[in-house]
Design goal:
Blueprint (H helix, E strand, L loop, with lengths): L5 E2 L2 E2 L11 H12 L4 H8 L3 H13 L18
Length: 80
Amino acid sequence: MEVQKVFSNYYIALGNHDFSWTEQELKDFREMWNDDLPFNIICRRLERRQIEVAVLIMDQADQGIIKKRKIGLGMKGIFE
């Protein structure tokens, strides 16, 4: 695991995570989300950490690209 980065007295939160997504990854994510796949399965299929997918969910929901699901994340607690 990478060490957190510090730049000139600034702390970069979550600096050791990758929050960039390709168009194909976004397409795959949205399809899995709309198909009501559980959160942990989405993470596994995208080969991403839970925190990375959680941030993507917040981003896509904030932009109105994905909708709230009846099943929510589809599992008890997101960081199990």
